[in-house]
């Protein structure tokens, strides 16, 4: 496991930290990321109305996978995360999907070794890849693309590191929006986080040829890339 990935995964093995983080994570109407998750599902449906296999990498409690499996009732899901505490929570929160979901504990930089099957129609990940450096991020996209079917999607909803001038603006303005949560337990990040270009370059290098930032608010972007149909 690469060093930055190991350091990121370590904090999520602390059950008290994970429980506090989950308790502070906005739910329902306060969850600003509900929109980009749903947008991702609807955009995928435009090209791929009946995906069979959807993988959620670093899936946490399974919010993104839950939205995808609701949108695509014929799909089965694979959940992967490094945290045993998240596994316990995901088993509860995704229980309504029954045998449609399989669970794998493993590292996001070693998807094959963790047993993620090939031929996925969609691989999603959210709020995790910002722990990787540019090289690791590109490696992640490369491996994920290798596990994705022709015409399939790579979807990443994550926080980016903007240019300094934008960082200052965002920091000041987002305080005015109540939905941000200073109460959330903080954890270590290696700044600067990967930039928009780090993501787009990585997706492009992994072979995605239909790329866009489908949604963005402050630091958080919904990156979507589709692989060629072969
Ligand atoms: C901020 S949470 C986000 C969870 C979920 N994706 C979401 O958006 O609700 C970050 C997740 O990434 C997982 N994680 C961090 N580093 C990881 C790694 N190297 N491999 C796999 N999972 C990792 C953590 O265990 C945690 O569940």
List keywords for this structure.
230 residues, Rossmann fold, seven-stranded mixed β-sheet, Methyltransferase domain-containing protein, methyltransferase activity, methyltransferase, transferase
Explain what the structure shows.
The structure is a single chain. With 230 residues, the protein is α/β, with parallel strands linked by helices. It has helices at 3-11, 15-24, 34-47, 63-71, 84-93, 134-146, 164-174, 196-205; strands at 53-57, 76-81, 101-105, 120-126, 148-159, 210-217, 220-226. The chain contains 8 helices and 7 strands, in the order αααβαβαββαβααββ. Strands 3-2-1-4-5-7-6 form a 7-stranded mixed sheet, sandwiched between helices. Helix 4 links the parallel strand 1 and strand 2. Helix 6 packs parallel to helix 8 (196-205). The longest helix has 14 residues, at 34-47. The mean pLDDT is 93. This is Methyltransferase domain-containing protein.
The CATH class name reads Alpha Beta
Ligands bound, unique: S-adenosylmethionine
Low-confidence stretches: none
CATH-scheme architecture: 3-Layer(aba) Sandwich
Question: Considering DSSP H and I runs of 4 or more, what fraction of the residues is helical?
Answer: 25-40%
Largest β-sheet summary: 7 strands, mixed
Pfam family, one: Methyltransf_25
Domain Methyltransferase: 54-152
GO biological process, one term: methylation
Protein name: Methyltransferase domain-containing protein
Summarize the structure.
The protein is built from eight helices and seven strands. It has 230 residues and is α/β, with parallel strands linked by helices.
